[in-house]
Structure formats: C-alpha cells, structure tokens
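ENTRY TYPE: paired fold submission
RECORD: A
CONTENT: sequence, then structure tokens
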Amino acid sequence: MSQLAVVEDTTGQTEAARILRAAWAVLERSHFRSLKIRQVLTASGTSASTFYRSFPSKSHLLLALLEDETARGDRRLARWIAEADTAEGRLRAWLTFNIRTIYRPELAERARLFLDSGLLEELPEDVHRLYDVTGKRLVEVIRGGMAEQVFRAGDPVADAAMVRHLVHGLLSDGLNGRLDVPEEQVLHTAFDFVLRALRPTSGTRESRTLLALP
C-alpha cells in the first residue's frame, strides 16, 4: 500500500494532504532545487510531530511526491498514446514523452528531485514500483504492435525492459549534463533504433505476412 493510501486510511488525511501541498509549494519556489522539512513545516503550519506521524522520514515525503507526480504523468502519457492511431505512433509517443524531460527545464528540475540517492536506498521497492508505471504503458504498446503484426512476435515485457534501459541511460546522461545532442536528433535516433529492433526481420513469417498484405 502506498504512503498516501496509508494516510488516507487514518484520521491524518487532511494533515498529509496539507503537508504535500506545502511541499509542492516549497519546491516550486526553489525551482525544485531544495526541499527541507523545516521549510515544509513552516509552509504547512504543522508541527514536527504531526509531520512525522504522516511521513516517517524525508524519503517518505519524497516518495509521496513521486507518487503524486507519477500518477499525473501517467494520465498525460495515456492521453498521448491514445491519440496515436498506429503501433509505431504509440511507440514514438512513449519515447517522446520520456525524452522531452531532458529538454524541458521545468520537467528536468522535477525529475532531478527524484534521483535522490537516499530515497532509492531507503525505499527501493516503492521507488521501482513507481518507475514501473510508465514501463507498463510501454509493454502495452509493444504487445499491441505484436498483435497487429507490426512488431515481431516475442516477449513484450522483456522487449520493454530493454527499451527502458536505453531511455534510462539517455535520461541519466541528459539530466546530468552529459548529453550534448539536440532533442530531435536524440528522438529520431532512439525511435529508429527501437523500431528496427522490434520490427520483423527479413525472411521471418511476420515479415512475409506484412509483405503479402495489400
């Protein structure tokens, strides 16, 4: 059960919601460069004991913020994917949604916040669960492409994992200033690479079927 769900099952619901709203306000004022519990306490008008009743540590607060951010991002991603009318278009939508994080300052600032090493060390399972949310969307995209015979038959979960590793590397390099390549070039190269990996290869039954289609 998520941190927020635990809070909502108790009488601390209003307290937790107020603290989260205050935390977002503190982050926005600092352009997502700083989040100190003292600042959150002041902004929310709550005591330390009230804070720790809802969030046992700063990492738990970050996790709740990440959960909130992930839920909103997933809704946007779902709309992007739904607007595409082909399997290839849905794949490109997924890649675009993720890669643009590097090149949009407001998105990059938020993403860097959740690269906090303490968060991953203290709550690794919860963090990976949230990271898997966009990954599940990619699995759906690849599985749909396989069903339409646009992508070769295979394991959509394993294929999605490989694509996610590629994108994770791009995000890591980009957010840490190690990717000096224009957005369109990165997107084009990544899309072309992934598409070539997923498309049926010459001589396979899938490719022969596609060639036979009118």
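RECORD: B
CONTENT: sequence, then structure tokens
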Amino acid sequence: MAAQYTFTDLRNINVGCHNVIAVVKFFKKPQKTKGTGYSMFASVSDPSLCGDKFPVIFLCNNIDHLPPIRTPGDIIIMHRLKVSMYRGSLQGCGPGSSGFAFAVFPGLCDSPLTPYPSPTNCSFTDADLFRVFELRGWYNSDSCPLEKELPPDVVMTEPQAPSNQMVPFAERVVPSTRIHSIMKNAFVNIEAQIVAIYSYPPEITRDIILSLWDGQPPPEAASLPPFYTHHDLDRPPHISDSRTDPHLAAITGHSMLPANEDWSVTVFVFDEHAQSAVAKKLKPGDLIRIINVHCTGKLGHVRRKLDVHGGGQKYGRRIELLTEETAPPDLVARLKAGRDARKPITTPSQSPGAADLGVVRCLSSFFAV
C-alpha cells in the first residue's frame, strides 16, 4: 500500500522540500541544456493562489524522464520538490535525482484518473486521486480565475513557408471551436465570417468590435448563457461608425432578434490587434480566423463576453484573413447551410446611402426554417 504523503498548498510554499499536487497553468516543451541534459519549464497553480502561479523547472539527463505534460490543465503530483530563491522569487526545481518523483494526470473532467505513462511515476493513494479529481473540477469550472491560454505549439502549428506564400489549410493544424459553444474562462481559436464592424472616433479609442457568425448554432448552445454585445456597453458605437453586410445581418438576425435567436456573436478587439495591418483591411463578408480569443463572464456571469486582448504574441494571438480556398471546408459548408436554412428576416433598405451604413429594415421578428 502506498504511503500517504503530506502535501503543501502553494500559498504556503517556502524554501525547502515539499510535496505538491497542482494544476499546470503553462508549460514549455523540453529544451536541451548547455550540458548533456534537458530542462522543462512549467507554471502551476491551485485554489490557494487565487489565480496566481508558481514556477517550476524540471531537469533530467534523459528527456523521457521529464514530466509527460501534454496540455495546460493537466494535474501533477510532485514528491520532494526542491524550493529555493531565484532572482528574488521562490521557484521549484525537480531534479532528475535526489528522490524527486511525479505523476501527471489528464485535466479533462471525463478522463480516467490514470496518470500518463512515464518510467518515473510516483506512488499515490486514493486520497491523492481525490485531490486530483477536485483540482480538475476546479480548473474546468466557471469560478476558476486562471487564464487558460495555450502555448504556441498547441494553439497552432504550421510548416515553414516563404513569408510571401499562404500555407494551404490542408497543410495546417489549427484546432478551433464553434463560436456559440465557447465556455466561460476558455481561450480558443475561432473561424467565422464578419457580419459587421464597429468602431469609434479615433480620439475616443482605436479598438474595434466585430460581429461574427460561423453558421447555425449547434443544439447544445441553447443551454449556454447569451453573449455580451456592443448594445450592452455604457457607450455603444454610433451607427455612423459601423459597416454592416445587410444580407448577412438579415440572415443572422444581427441586432434585431433576441439574444437567444441572434446567430451573430460580438468579439471585442483591443490595442495592437485592432490596429494591425490585417484588422485595418477587414470588411463585412470577410472570412477570418482569430487565434487566442478569451471568453469571460459579464453582468454577473449571465453573459459570455469574447475578447481579443492586447499582447499575447507569445501565445500566437492574432487575426488572420482567410479566403474560401484557405478557410476550413467545414466552415464554408456551415455558412452555406446556414444561408439555406434561414430565410432573411429583413431586407436592405433602399434609402440613399443606407447600404453603406449597413442599415436594414426589419420586416418580421420571426424567421422560417
């Protein structure tokens, strides 16, 4: 029977040797050291840190003996983790000797409580497994304060190509999420078509607001909270500062149907991402991919809000312009199916200049399928 270890909450960590069970917030792939070994960096957290993180460096001469962390959210048990001061802050070190041992468990709630295969798995008890179960539930809950950003190699990988050539979609690996299925506290990639673009006078802000759709929402979206929109802002953008595709607005019900029937979703784009060369060229009707969108809870967590925060280059955060040739085939198919499934609830106004402003005239508050 495995011995029961005493574990330390991360907020109580001090210089010395500790046993820890924690969630992996971020990690880097193993790297070759200047010597003969390998190193791997990770930051871990638990509820006691209230959203903060604790850095850990793993060292080993055999790369196969490093922790088999696969994705943020994995749970790691560490025995005899050495903690010392490094550049004025506490840092954990898991050397490949001195009795350090570990076990890494998948972070998905429906995964079995079985560690990833490793030649150096440590022992654990039923009480330890229950703590792993608790941490998985905490990390995947709406109340978890951790930002769940993915490292670049998980966010997106692509083959090398000359900078003036576009890599075909078939050669790229870009995990993405349906917009209406995004869960709160998640960082995801999305692919969609622009329905409308909202902005403000430059003396107020250079941030922009995108209204997107990616086809008819999946059935499970009906059980999720509606999205926060530009109408919920204290100072929503003026119609004169907007550009809208009237036909797409008519198909999606953008800004005209109740939130649970509007197929469009609002994304708020900040700082350099709103002023990037790609963002300045965007127009309604364009197909785009956004890497590293953050979903948070707003208005007392009764709404979901999608943000493209400033910064985040180390996570690959950016907006990409797609074409029908480079867009995922399933996105193009969903958009076509959505246009076929829903009759427009509006028609473009024929008044002079209305099309330029994206003004649409509502004919009915109902739609036919």
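NOTES ON RECORD B: The two ends are 61 Å apart (CA to CA). Residues 126-139 form the longest helix (14 residues).
STATUS: closed
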